Amino acid sequence: MTAPLKMLGKTLGAGFALLALAACGGEDSASVSSEQESKVLPGGGTVKEMVEMRHEAMEDIGDSFKTISDQLKSGSPDLDAMKSSAALIAEHAPNVGDWFPAETSPALGVDTDALATIWERPEDFAAIAAKFETAAGELNAAAQTGDVEAIGAAFKATGGQCKACHDDFREDD
User: Fold this and answer.
1) How far apart are CA 7 and CA 69, in angstroms?
2) What gap in Å lies between CA 121 and CA 112, rounded to an integer?
3) How far apart are CA 91 and CA 85, in angstroms?
4) Which residues face 114 on adjacent strands?
């Protein structure tokens, strides 16, 4: 491993682990009451289907973050794993803001780790989702170059956007 990679690992290693595990994805213990589960959403699909899809997509993002974190901490990162993980995060990112329609709010009986602030402050949520989308695109662009230092910097910035969203819009794990 080159000296810059060793320094990057020492400087950012602990932060990556915390960001990856606490910031994105994770378990969402979402469930839907029987009266809500079959309600059809305006765009099609049911409340139950939306909550399950959102849960799975967030898990995909979390798993991808963990992969990138693990690779950044390894002695010889698997660039292909980082590239595909960053691409998956970037693929999901533009949709995050759409995964929380009004009918999936906890105020309507949906048991979810998503806080009511998503629906109470929709402009704030939309703004933070847009920042995540931008950061995820930058992470993907950095990953596709194969420059491990650039990936590390973009990973940290993207994880910061995940954390910022979780701070205000998701229950603590």
Assistant:
1) 15
2) 17
3) 10
4) 170
Kind and range of the H or E run holding 110: strand 110-111
Q: Tell me the pTM.
A: 0.81
Q: What pLDDT band is residue 40 in, cutting at 50, 70 and 90?
A: confident
C-alpha radius of gyration, the chain, whole number: 17
Residues 6+ apart with CB under 8 A from 115: 106, 168, 169, 170, 171
57-110 per-position pLDDT tens digit? 999 999 999 999 999 999 899 999 999 999 999 999 999 999 999 999 998 888
- Distance of alpha carbon 5 from alpha carbon 75, whole angstroms: 9
